[in-house]
């Protein structure tokens, strides 16, 4: 088995994983999707300067969105942070640019190797372009099977981490992948990270949306 690559990208530190997990939870809840620096510090125990630094890196990567609070009362507006999930109301300009650039590079590759296009169609092909570049940026070596709708990421570069951290890590990683697929637009969604007895084994299950499958 090949050695796992370096851990990099949005989940390169557990502190960033914690922050992204909190923002994904807020996005999924029925309450407001944004969080303040103070709320994130209280939930993680991290120093405000550390939280700001991590958030800035995540913003620059297109994974977090920053906005200024709209106030109807007196007082200084707070800065709010939310997860860039790829939905219309939570789309990052940086993430959109990444998706477009991945599609352009994919088109160049397919002109040389036409067989590299996904049998799932044009939109799914562009989704996979964006997903593969995201995963490579994060230190993975993805192998896509568009018949089984799986992405093999073994060996996982996070396998050497603490076992108790893996559930949160996998949840955040799945959320990031789903955000990339949503931003790209198309029939594919990230469904689950398959469980395995071997920490280095990592396979992501994709699915076709019900509308497309129908």
From TrEMBL:
One GO molecular-function entry: DNA-binding transcription factor activity
Residue span(s) of domain HTH arsR-type: 16-64
Pfam families per record: HTH_5
SUPFAM superfamilies in alphabetical order: Winged helix' DNA-binding domain (SSF46785)
InterPro entries found in the cross-reference section: ArsR-like_HTH, HTH_ArsR_DNA-bd_dom, WH-like_DNA-bd_sf, WH_DNA-bd_sf
Gene3D superfamilies: Winged helix-like DNA-binding domain superfamily/Winged helix DNA-binding domain (1.10.10.10)
Record-linked CDD domains: HTH_ARSR
Protein name: Bacterial regulatory protein, arsR family
Originating species: Microbacterium oxydans
